[in-house]
Amino acid sequence: MGGREHWTGRFGFIMATAGSAVGLGNVWKFPYEAGQNGGGAFLLLYLFFIALFGLSLVIAELLLGRTTQRNPVGAFRALGGGAWPLVGGVGVLAGFVILSFYIVVAGWTLAYLGFMISGDLGADPAVLGERFGAFVGSPLAPIGWAALFMLLSVAVVIGGVKGGIEKASRILMPALFVLLLLLVLRSISLPGAEAGLAYYLQPDWSRVTMETVSSAIGQAFFSLSLGMGALITYGSYLQRDANIAGSATIIVGLDTLVALLAGLMILPAVFAFGFDPSAGPGLTFITLPAVFAQMPAGQWFGIAFFALLAVAALTSAISLLETVVCYFTDETRLGRKGATAVVAAIAFAMGVPASLSLGVWSGITVPGTSLGIFDFLDFTASNLMLPLGGLLTAVFVGWRWSQPAAEALRGAGMPAALLPVWIAVLRYIAPLGIAVILFGALR
Ligand code: TRP
C-alpha cells in the first residue's frame, strides 16, 4: 500500500474529519428532529448517546483505518477474515443510500443561496412555508440543483485527499462556525424567543417514545459520520503513529457544539415567528429566511449562510463519496476517476426518486411501510444501517480483533487509564445499548 495518500498533518486531518461530521445533519436534520421529538428531551438523549458510545466508536473506526491503511471492506478482511468484510460492505451500501438523499437536501441549500441572491423569497412567514413546499415539490428544479451539487462533489473527490478534501475544509468550516454564533445571538434576541428556548432546553419526557430514542441514536450516528466506514477510510489516510484519541475528542466536540448551536439558532426563531416546530425537513429552510428578513444586512447574512452551509454539505458529501470510491479503487481495477463517476451516477439515479417523492410522487409509499421514498431511505440508512454498522464494529474491535489495546496506545495514544473504559464500552455497553434500540425500532 506504499502509494496511499496521507493527510498533510494533524490540523488538516481534524478539519477534514470535522468537515465530514459537520454538515446538513447538524444544521438541517438536528433542529427539525429536535422540533419533532420533544425538544430538550431529544437533545439530552442525543448528547447521552454521543457520550456513552459515540466517541468510543469514532476512535474505534479511525483506529481500524489507521492500522490497516485500507477501505472498510479491506480493513475488516485484514484483521478479521471470515464474514467480517460484510460489515464494511453494508457500510459501502449505506454510503450510496445516504449520498442519494443527501445531495437532494444539499441541492436545496444551493437553490436557497440563489433565492437569497435574487432576494425574491419575501419575509412573510406564511409565504415562506408555501415557497418551500412548492420548491421541493416541483419536479425538475430540485433535481437540477442536486445534479449540480453531485458534480461539485465529484470534482473535489477526483482531486484526491490533499488537493481537494483537505483544502476545502480548512478555511470554510471556521467561517461557518462564526456565522452560526452571530445567528444564534439574533435568534435568541427575537421577541417571543423564550418559548423556543424553553422548548429546546427544558426536556418534556412525556413526549418520548421508542421512536424518539431510535431517532436520537440515528441522529448521533448520522451526525458523527459513524457506522458506515467513512471514519475507517479517513483513518486509513493517517500515518501509523498519528494521534487518534485526542483528535477524535476534538472532532466529536466540534460536531456536537455545531448541532447545539444550530438548535439554538432555529428553535427560538421558530417560536418567535409562530412556525410549527414539528414542520419536518423544511424547518431550517422556512425559519431562517424569516430571521434574515428581520436583521440588518439580512440579505448578506442569508447569502453567506447558505453558501457556507452548501460548503459544509460538500465536505460531508465528499466523505460519503470518498468512502465508496475508496472501496472501489482498493478492491477493483477501477481508477479513481472511473470509480467516482460510476458511484456518483448511481447515487444520483437513486436521488431522483427521493426528490420526486416530496412532490409528484408524494402519494407513493414504500411497500410494507408508511414511508415515502425519501423518508424510507433516510430511516433505513440512519436509524437501521448505521446503528447496525456501529454495533458490529464495536463487537469486532471489542471481541474479534486481537490487538486493539496495543494499537490504541500506539503513537500519541489514548491515556492508559482510559483504555479499560474504552474496551468495556466496545465490548458491552455499545453492543447491548444499540441492540436494544434497534430491536425497539424494528418492532
Ligand atoms: N455527518 C454528516 C452530517 O452531519 C453526514 C455524513 C457524512 C455521514 N459522512 C457520513 C453520515 C457517513 C453517516 C456516515 O451532515
Task: Note down, in words, how this protein is organized.
The chain has a single domain (10-442), classed as Amino acid/polyamine transporter I (Up-down Bundle). It is an all-alpha fold and 443 residues long. The chain is built from 18 helices and no strands. α1 packs across α8 (161-188), α2 (24-36) crosses α12 and α3 packs antiparallel against α12. The mean pLDDT is 93. Tryptophan (TRP) binds at residues 20-21, 23-26, 98, 222-223, 225, 228, 230, 316, 319-320, 386.
Gist of the model:
With 443 residues, the chain is mostly helical. 76% of the residues lie in helices and 0% in strands. The protein has 18 helices and no strands.
Per DSSP, the total helix count is 18
- Mean pLDDT, as a whole number? 93
CATH class: Mainly Alpha
Can you identify the CATH superfamily?
A: Amino acid/polyamine transporter I
User: How many beta-strand elements?
Assistant: 0
Small ligands present: tryptophan
How many domains in all?
1
Q: Strand-residue fraction?
A: under 5%
- Which radius of gyration do the C-alpha atoms yield? 21 Å
Structural class: mainly alpha
The major pleated sheet works out as:
none
Order of helices and strands: HHHHHHHHHHHHHHHHHH
In CATH, the topology is named Amino acid/polyamine transporter I
Helix content: over 70%
State the low-pLDDT regions, or none: none
